[in-house]
Amino acid sequence: MLIRTRRNRKGPYLRDLVRENHLRVEDFILPVFIMEGPGREEIPSMPGVYRHGLEDLPPFLDEARSLGIRAVAPFPAIHESLKDSRGSESTNPDGLYLRALRLIKDRFPELVIFSDVALDPYSSDGHDGIVSPEGEILNDESLDILGNMAVAQARAGADFVAPSDMMDGRVGHIRNALDSEGFTGTGILSYCAKYASAFYGPFRDALQSAPKSGDKKTYQMDPANVREALREYDLDLQEGADMVMVKPGLPYLDVVRALAEVSELPVAVYNVSGEYAMLKAAASAGWLDYRSVVMEALIGMKRAGANIILSYHAMEAARWLQD
Ligand code: PBG
Q1: Which of 4, 23, 61, 307 keeps 20 to 30 A from 262, CA to CA?
Q2: Pairing of β 130-131 and β 46-53
């Protein structure tokens, strides 16, 4: 045999030398659930992940900072009594989310905040846009609310706003809204290729934000499609997105690869709640070695071409990367 590929795998130092992709703590954005009230509450379908009360947030973020985490994506669990059909609570300056953003920016000015722009946490219908009496998700009518949310979040300290709603034209609309209020330096991380996925189940448990009726298939993408993701990318690029994201992660790594090959923008991937829950559940049953499968899943996302990974495993992975 002239060629023996095993020569390059002989020992750990050699394997380190020829390694093509690397996971770094700088790659992570840590999603953080926020709630009203004291202490923290574990999310049953996401063991090890909590909703944090505002007093619990600084010690939690201290821990994240000490592990090297540099970016966070907060999501609010809004009390049901504050939800309405237009998601009005989303722009209440004294509401939970905007208070949380101000607190984070004040206490951790160096942390990069990616705030969430969508109606669902505040919507009595549990949809990302306004719902008509006939049950249609109204696109253009939702844009003004999304623009106002983005501006309110920028004002509260968001470095980037991250529209997760999938309404058409929202990136351009949000860009205009931000610029016209003077927030020309606030970036947009667009959920560019966001699929209508059942892997979001635990997240909807965390925020109690599941749709009250219907599903999200008229705005989120069909899991069978990839060409459509490139179309969404073209639009987001033209509309002024600064970064694009694919979501979910593991079942969509081909989409990450497709975008990574053409994208002029950094490509993020969202390793979503259901992906986290799967590995946790299998590990707790003793069926998989948790640390090994988490690190393998994460390097798979880098290998697929993602620059940035939103992951509930970020804290654990950051700890392991220090070992
Ligand atoms: C909604 C939103 C969802 C997630 C992030 N933003 C769920 C949905 O579209 O219903 C899911 C994230 C996860 O599952 O971790 N705007």
Answers
A1: 23
A2: unpaired
How many structural domains compose the chain? 1
Rounded-to-10 torsion of CA 116, 314, 96, 159: -50
Q: Is 118 in the pocket of ligand 1 (CB under 6 A)?
A: yes
CA atoms within 13 A on the CB side of 110: 8
Query: What pLDDT does residue 62 have?
Result: 98
Can you give the pTM of this predicted structure?
0.97
CB of 122 shorter than 6 A to ligand 1: no
Confirm or reject: Cβ of 45 under 6 Å from ligand 1. no
> Separation of 153 CA from ligand 1 center, angstroms?
18
Looking at residue 91, what is its pLDDT?
98
How far is Cα 231 from Cα 238, in angstroms, rounded to an integer? 11
- For residue 259, give its domain range: 5-322
Q: What is the CATH number of the domain that holds 240?
A: 3.20.20.70
* 3-class DSSP assignment, residue 272: coil
Q: What pLDDT sits at residue 316?
A: 98
Give the relative orientation of helices 139-156 and 96-107 as an angle to the nearest 10 degrees: 30
* DSSP string of 30-50, one letter each residue: EEEEEESSSSEEEETTEEEEE
Mean pLDDT score, 152-170: 98
The answer to whether the beta carbons of residues 201 and 195 sit under 8 Å apart is no
Tell me, yes or no, if 247 is annotated catalytic.
yes
How far away, in angstroms, is 203 Cα from ligand 1 center? 6
127's tokens: 């949809």
Supply 220's token pair.
């989120």
Q: Is the CB of 236 under 6 A from ligand 1?
A: no
Atom of ligand 1 nearest to the CA of 211: 10
Average pLDDT over residues 117-122: 97
